[in-house]
Amino acid sequence: MGMKLDVYFYTTAMDACAKDTRRNSWKNALSLLEEMKREGIVPSEVTYGVAVTACGNGGQWRKALELLDQMRDVKLKINTITYNSAIAALSKAARNESKQHGNHAGGESNDAELLWEKSLDLIECMEKEGVRRDSFTFSSAISTCGAAGQWQEAVDLIEAMKGDGIKPNKFAYTSAISACANSKQWEPAYDLFNHVKKDGIQPDIVAYNALIGAGMTAKKPKEVFDLWQHMCQSRDAKVSPDIVTLTEVIATLDSAAGKVNRKRVDEVFSEAVARGVIMRKDSLDTSWEVDLSRMSFPVARAAVRHLFRQIVEKYGEGGGDEEDVKDLSLLTGASKMREYVRGVLRDELKPAVYCVVPEMAQGTLVAKEKVIRKYIEGQGQQ
Question: How much is the pTM?
Answer without folding.
Answer: 0.83
